[in-house]
Design goal:
alpha+beta, RNaseH_sf
């Protein structure tokens, strides 16, 4: 991230997963003058729409998956993202970026709005 945003200040919105807030992680973050963290609750789908994605994937494509390779998990995840992107019911559909495309973060409020997740 530091290389990608070279020379820019970054605000990272992180969920409250305990691994993100370990003593070692807090110490590392304290040394990064370019990085500001904002903490969300551990599970807050109304604030962190990716929670809905992971919930759906864990119930379907990743349920009881015991792949022999990391690629098996990646393939199942990609299948799940495809399923969600092509879901005709707008209440459960989410528009997600293709996993093999380069992501360019939005830079203006208009771009942020255009890239919002449909819920």
């Amino acid at each position: 991230m530091k290389v990608f945003y070279r020379g820019e200040r970054v605000v990272l919105v992180w969920d409250g997963l305990s691994a993100h807030w370990s003593r070692a992680m807090r110490a590392w973050v304290a040394e990064q003058d370019w990085l500001t963290l904002e903490r969300l609750p551990a599970y807050a789908p109304e604030l962190n729409p990716v929670e809905l994605l992971w919930s759906s994937l864990k119930k379907r494509e990743l349920a009881n998956l015991a792949g022999d390779h990391l690629a098996d998990v990646a393939d199942a995840t990609e299948q799940g993202i495809h399923r969600i992107n092509h879901n005709p019911q707008p209440t459960t559909a989410m528009v997600l970026p293709h996993p093999h495309r380069t992501h360019h973060p939005p830079t203006t409020p208009t771009e942020l709005t255009k890239r919002s997740v449909v819920s």
